[in-house]
Design brief:
heterodimer, A: mainly beta, 0% helix, B: mainly beta, seven-stranded mixed beta sheet, 50% strand
């Protein structure tokens, strides 16, 4: 069931570059959108959490949600080698219980 | 910063044996979840748990799986008769309520031989 699509990469960028990560989805009932970062052999770590459409900024990270296009993005400014990880998008509906639907994850390497 | 802790980090079990994976959610969280991630695949939802009962489960969570909150701090996933295809990373997560983001532990790597 391909509810959430994410390009697995790998993506390799030089240090300082702007990184754009994207997910598309098919279920118009999704209301909550998350980005997680996952380092090797670790659990997903929450980066950004947004509700419905719009932008949210936190330091070097900006999350965008376009519900009309069923498209979400994560931008990383001034990328650092420590940003090298797998980035997972996740989303859920507004029902209680809230299972998250994850993308496959995009593997990012930031080269010093 | 409070975190979700999972034990063991790696569990090796013979096919057909029962296994219990353990989690300590963040202390003020009320919703608890189990996910699994087969190598190279997506993180998949298994079950959510609230107020001492299952609130939602996926098709993966069949009769061989069960969850329990045996005391005020632990949350467990039991797999009754393990199969080779149960080999995966199992992640526990918790949240303050059903609409808040879920915080994940570092997972238990389950290897079925």
């Amino acid at each position: 069931q391909k509810e959430v699509e994410q390009d697995p990469g790998p993506l390799s960028v030089p240090e300082g570059a702007i990184v754009s990560l994207n997910c598309t989805y098919s279920n118009s009932a999704f209301q909550y959108f998350m980005w997680y970062r996952q380092y090797s052999r670790k659990g997903p770590e929450l980066l950004m959490y947004t509700y419905s459409s719009g932008n949210k900024e936190d330091g070097r990270f900006t999350a965008q949600v376009d519900k009309s296009s069923k498209y979400i993005s994560l931008f990383i400014r001034d990328s650092q080698p420590s940003d090298s990880a797998t980035y997972l998008c996740a989303m859920s509906t507004s029902n209680t219980g809230n299972q998250f639907y994850f993308g496959t994850g995009t593997s990012l390497t930031v080269i010093p | 910063e409070p975190e979700v802790t999972q034990t063991p980090s790696h569990q090796v079990t013979q096919m057909g044996q029962e296994v219990i994976l353990r989690c300590v959610p963040i202390s003020n969280h009320l919703y608890f979840y189990w996910y699994r991630q087969i190598l190279g695949q997506k993180v998949e939802f298994l079950v959510s748990f609230y107020n001492n009962e299952i609130s939602e489960k996926s098709e993966i969570f069949d009769d061989q799986f069960s969850v329990e909150r045996p005391d005020g701090s632990n949350f467990t996933l039991k797999i009754r008769s393990t199969k080779l295809e149960d080999s995966a990373m199992y992640f526990c997560a918790s949240s303050t309520d059903g609409n808040q983001p879920q915080h994940f532990g570092d997972g238990t790597r389950l290897s079925i031989l």
